[in-house]
Specification:
Elements: H1 2-16, H2 25-47, H3 57-81, H4 92-116, H5 125-147, H6 153-178
Helix pairs in contact: 1-4, 1-5, 2-3, 2-5, 3-5, 3-6, 4-5, 4-6, 5-6
């Protein structure tokens, strides 16, 4: 199940490749390593642990809340290390392209996770859904970090970290409906 979170991102990377023409190679490497580590750690935290009464709330809330911030901070730190310009030179077209791509990459892993964990959380379906949404969107963020030629902080915050926060919010809202434990009348 954990591997399905990254599968659409891997397909997108194979299809689109890695863009190093517009950005320093050191920036791309730092962002890829940092965001990949954050997404991987969040994936493990979300999918492992004691399950009979759901994952610990603190762990799920940390994943959902901290993951968009962590992805932004990784890109900011990489910009500072390679002395890249922090301002964004792109317009709404680039922002919207990255947001749409990220949300498209979010759909399949979030849907698969919700299908597998449907009607399974008796305590915190909203927190589980938020963490699943953030994790699914974070792998799209890793893909964008490798493919998007823009490295301005406003673009990264809005178009790369923003969809991760949106994925967490979407997961929390849908979690109430899909992940909550339901009684099934067999008679």
């Amino acid at each position: 199940m954990m591997a399905s979170s990254a599968l659409p991102a891997v397909i997108q990377l194979v299809r689109g490749g890695v863009d190093v023409a517009a950005r320093p190679l050191a920036y791309v490497a730092l962002v890829a390593a940092g965001s990949g580590f954050a997404a991987g750690l969040a994936t493990v935290w979300t999918f492992t642990g004691p399950a009979p009464l759901g994952r610990p709330r603190s762990r799920l809330v940390i994943v959902a809340g901290a993951l968009p911030v962590a992805m932004f901070l990784v890109a900011l730190a990489a910009s500072l290390v390679v002395h890249a310009p922090l301002g964004s030179t792109s317009g709404w077209h680039a922002h919207s392209h990255c947001i749409v791509t990220s949300l498209a990459l979010l759909a399949a892993p979030l849907g698969a996770s919700f299908y597998v964990f449907r009607c399974s959380d008796p305590v915190l379906p909203w927190a589980t859904g938020a963490a699943l949404g953030a994790v699914a969107a974070s792998w799209g963020g890793v893909t964008l970090a490798l493919q998007c030629p823009e490295m301005g902080t406003s673009h990264v915050a809005l178009a790369h970290a923003g969809p991760i926060a949106l994925g967490a919010l979407l997961g929390a809202v849908l979690g109430w409906r899909v992940l909550a434990l339901r009684w099934i009348d067999v008679a």
